[in-house]
Design brief:
This protein is an alpha+beta fold. Helix content is 43%, strand content 13%. The chain has helices spanning 12-57, 63-81, 85-101, 103-110, 116-126, 132-146, 151-165, 170-178, 201-229, 231-234, 320-334, 364-367, 385-393, 420-430, 469-477, and strands at residues 182-187, 193-198, 287-295, 306-307, 315-316, 357-363, 376-377, 381-382, 398-403, 410-415, 445-449, 464-468, 481-484, 490-493, 499-502. Helix 1 (12-57) runs antiparallel to helix 2 (63-81) and helix 2 (63-81) crosses helix 3. The longest helix is centred in the N-terminal third of the chain and has 46 residues, at 12-57. The radius of gyration is 31 Å and the shape is elongated.
C-alpha cells in the first residue's frame, strides 16, 4: 500500500480515515512479517539439525573438533547475510529450541497471531522448565496471553507462571545459577569496551540504583558550582538556597520510586530483644506479602564462598570468576569515587555515603521459612527466599501488605517502622517515657506498638507511644497491656487486674488578650 501525501483541503474526517487505513495496513504488514519470521525460524532449525547430525558422526573426542560443523554453518550464513557468525549461531540455537520445545509458539507466529518479540519472551521465560508436559501446559497458557497483550507483559506473566510450576525450588536453582557469576569484557570500536557482570539480582539492581543516584548527585553539584560562579547570569540570590528540588540540604532520593528509609530497625523491640530484626514479627493470616526497602549491603548472598574446617582456618572455595564478580560488586556498592565534587550541603557524606536500595516483596509464609516461592525484586524479578529473608531481617523498614484471603486484592499497606514525621510528632507529644511515674527522656526511649504489630497492630499515631527500655521490656515480656485512647492518653492493665489511666502532660499556653496580664 502506498501512502498519499495529505492535501491542504483534507478535512478532519478524511484524515481519520487515512489514519485508520494506515493502522490496518501496518497490522496486515506485521502479520506478514511474523509469517516470514516463522519461516526463518524453521529454516534455521532445519539447517542446525543437519549440522548437529554431522557433529554426531564426528568420532573425535575433542570438543572443538566436534563443534566445527555448527561453527562452519554459522559462518556460511553470516557471509551470506552480512552478519557476525556468533550472532548467527545464537539465532540458530534459538530457532532449534523454539521448534523442538515450543512448536505451538512457532505455529502461532506463522499464523500471525503473535510477533517475534512475543516468541522471544516465551522462549526466554519458558526455557527453565525441563519437563515436557509441564512446559507444554505452561506454553498454552502463556500463548493465550501473548495473543492479546504486549511482549513485556507476556514476559512478566510467563516468568511468574514458570516460577509457580517449576518442580525445583528457588533456593536450589538460585544456588546453581549463582555459581555461574562472573565478569566479562567485549571489545567495542574506538578503544572502548563493554563490561558485563553476572550477579544475583538483588546485587545487580542495587549497583544500578547506586550509580544512578551518584550521577544525579554529581549533576546537582555541577549545577550548584555553575550557579555560584555566575550568580548574576542566573539571577540567583547568593544568600538564599539555590536548589528547591531536593538537591540542596537533602540526600538524593532513589530514582526508581522506592523509598530510602533510614529508621532504626529495632524501634519496636527493646534493647534486650533482637534489635537487628533477625526474628521478624508474625503477621496475621490475611497478610500476604511483606514489601521490604533495604540497602543492598552484601554481594554473593547465600552463595557458599568459604569452607570452614574445625581443624584449620577458613578456606576460600570460590573460583577466580566468582571472586572477580564479588569484588566488582563490593567496589560498586561501597567504594567512593576518587573525585567527589559534592558537598555536605548537596550530598551529606559525599558520594560514598550513597547506598543502593532494592525493593523486595516476599510472601509471609516464605519469609517464615514455610514456603520456597514468591519472593521478587520490585515485583518483577524472582529472587531466592534465603536472600529475601536475609535482606528483610536487616531492613531499616518494611511494609506489611494486607490482602483479601480469597481474591488477593490489597486491602491495606502499613510500615512496621514508624516514619520520620511520626517520630517527630510523638516525641513532641510524649516528651518522656509514658509508663506510670517514669520520666526517662525521649533520647533513651523506644517507640512501641501498644497493640503489638505481630498481632495486627497498625503503625499509626493512635497505636504508638514512647517507652524506656525498662518499661518496653516489661510490657513485651509480661502480661501488662496498654491501650491508647483517642486523645493520646494510655490505659495500663496489670497482671493483677489494676488499671491506670496515664494522661498526657499538660502544657502552659499563653493566649493573646486585649486586657493586660494580671501580673
Amino acid at each position: 500500500m502506498t501512502s498519499q501525501p495529505p492535501s491542504d483541503s483534507e478535512s478532519p474526517a478524511d484524515e481519520r480515515e487515512r489514519v485508520r487505513a494506515l493502522v490496518e495496513a501496518i497490522r496486515d504488514e506485521s502479520v506478514r512479517v511474523a509469517r516470514v519470521q516463522a519461516s526463518l525460524v524453521r529454516l534455521r532449525a532445519e539447517a542446525l539439525q543437519i549440522a548437529l547430525d554431522q557433529m554426531a558422526r564426528v568420532r573425535s573426542r575433542d570438543t572443538r573438533a566436534r563443534e566445527m560443523p555448527v561453527r562452519s554453518l554459522a559462518l556460511e550464513i553470516a557471509v551470506a547475510t552480512h552478519t557476525h557468525d556468533l550472532t548467527v549461531q545464537k539465532e540458530l540455537s534459538d530457532a532449534h529450541t523454539l521448534t523442538e520445545k515450543f512448536a505451538a509458539t512457532v505455529d502461532a507466529l506463522g499464523e500471525g497471531r503473535i510477533g517475534m518479540r512475543h516468541a522471544q519472551a516465551i522462549l526466554e521465560t519458558g526455557i527453565v522448565l525441563d519437563d515436557d508436559d509441564t512446559r507444554a501446559g505452561w506454553e498454552q497458557v502463556v500463548l493465550a496471553r501473548a495473543e492479546r497483550d504486549s511482549p513485556g507483559r507476556v514476559r512478566a506473566f510467563g516468568r511468574e507462571l514458570a516460577e509457580s510450576v517449576h518442580p525445583v525450588g528457588m533456593t536450589e536453582r538460585h544456588a546453581r545459577a549463582a555459581a555461574t557469576r562472573g565478569v566479562s569484557v567485549r571489545d567495542l570500536a574506538d578503544g572502548m569496551a563493554e563490561l558485563s557482570v553476572i550477579l544475583p539480582a538483588t546485587v545487580a539492581y542495587g549497583i544500578r540504583d547506586r550509580l544512578r543516584r551518584q550521577a544525579a548527585a554529581i549533576r546537582a553539584a555541577a549545577a550548584e558550582a555553575q550557579t555560584e560562579e555566575a550568580p548574576e547570569a542566573t539571577g540567583a540570590d547568593t544568600g538564599s538556597d539555590a536548589h528547591t528540588g531536593g538537591a540542596a540540604g537533602t540526600a538524593p532520593t532513589p530514582m526508581d520510586g522506592t523509598a530510602a528509609v533510614g529508621e532504626n530497625p529495632g524501634s519496636d523491640a527493646p534493647a534486650s530483644l533482637d534489635e537487628c530484626g533477625e526474628a521478624m514479627p508474625e503477621a496475621p493470616a490475611h497478610a500476604a506479602f511483606l514489601s521490604v526497602d533495604t540497602p543492598a549491603e552484601v554481594t554473593a548472598l547465600d552463595v557458599p564462598s568459604v569452607a570452614e574446617d574445625p581443624q584449620s582456618s577458613p578456606r576460600d572455595t570460590r573460583t577466580l570468576a566468582q571472586i572477580g564478580a564479588d569484588l566488582c560488586a563490593d567496589l560498586l556498592l561501597t567504594a567512593a569515587p576518587a573525585v567527589d565534587p559534592t558537598t555536605d550541603a548537596t550530598c551529606p557524606g559525599g558520594l560514598g555515603a550513597i547506598r543502593g536500595h532494592v525493593q523486595i516483596t516476599v510472601p509471609v509464609m516464605t519469609l517464615l521459612g514455610h514456603a520456597d516461592v514468591g519472593a521478587s525484586l520490585d515485583g518483577l524479578t524472582p529472587i531466592d527466599p534465603q536472600t529475601a529473608r536475609h535482606l528483610a531481617a536487616r531492613a531499616p523498614g518494611w511494609d506489611r501488605v494486607l490482602c483479601d484471603p480469597v481474591t488477593g486484592t490489597v486491602l491495606e499497606v502499613d510500615r512496621y517502622s514508624p516514619t520520620t514525621s511520626q517520630r517527630r510528632f510523638l516525641a513532641a507529644r510524649d516528651r518522656h517515657c509514658r509508663a506510670p511515674g517514669c520520666r526517662a527522656p525521649i533520647g533513651r526511649c523506644q517507640l512501641d506498638h501498644n497493640h503489638e504489630a505481630h498481632d495486627g497492630g497498625p503503625t499509626h499515631l493512635s497505636n504508638l507511644a514512647y517507652f524506656c527500655v525498662r518499661h518496653h521490656t516489661l510490657k513485651t515480656e509480661t502480661d501488662w497491656t496498654v491501650t491508647q485512647e483517642a486523645d493520646g492518653s494510655l490505659r495500663f492493665h496489670s497482671p493483677l487486674g489494676q488499671d491506670h489511666h496515664e494522661k498526657l502532660a499538660g502544657r502552659v499556653m499563653f493566649v493573646p488578650d486585649a486586657d493586660p496580664p494580671p501580673f
